[in-house]
Design brief:
The protein has eight helices and no strands. It is mostly helical. Helix 1 crosses helix 4, helix 1 packs parallel to helix 7 and helix 2 runs antiparallel to helix 7. The chain starts with 9 loop residues before the first helix and ends in a 21-residue tail after the last helix.
């Protein structure tokens, strides 16, 4: 168990490990076309973050990246096929973080929130748009900032000077 999860229930901990797969499905599937480029970018990004995350969330990504593709496939089968119901279900699941983040010790809620939004943005930009002029399509743009999550403020720079 990761130290930042010590105050969380098993269901809440599982939601953290489902967050990145859910974010991938939410953003990549916003245009009703989850393509291999977006899935490969999600896996690549998780791999990179497992060893290059300024030491903040590397353990989380090490655990996550081991079965990310498998979990994306499992959740894809579990979620509704139609875009709107699927997006609503994912948004509902991710919105649970608004209750979970306050339970976490500083600075972890901020770090996870920031990382989730950054991950969503990278997946949205991975497809490339029309001839690479529009890097994010209009459907992805609606969800890539994860509007279902209440922003988590950065903790004090005095107390946490090394945070991004």
């Amino acid at each position: 168990m990761l130290k930042e999860f010590k105050n969380l229930s098993p269901d809440e901990q599982q939601l953290f490990f489902d967050a990145i797969p859910l974010i991938t499905i939410l953003v990549a599937g916003a245009d009703d076309d989850i393509d291999e480029v977006e899935l490969e970018e999600a896996q690549r990004l998780a791999d990179i973050r497992s060893f290059n995350n300024a030491g903040h969330l590397t353990a989380y990504y090490e655990l996550l990246q081991e079965n990310l593709s498998t979990r994306i496939q499992e959740l894809s089968r579990e979620l509704p096929n139609a875009v709107e119901p699927r997006q609503q279900e994912i948004a509902s699941r991710l919105a649970r973080f608004n209750e979970i983040f306050p339970k976490m010790a500083l600075p972890f809620a901020y770090l996870y929130y920031r990382d989730f939004v950054s991950f969503a943005k990278h997946v949205a930009e991975s497809h490339g748009g029309f001839m690479r002029f529009m890097t994010v399509g209009p459907d992805e743009a609606k969800v890539m900032h994860l509007p279902m999550l209440t922003p988590v403020e950065r903790p004090s720079k005095v107390d946490y000077p090394d945070l991004p």
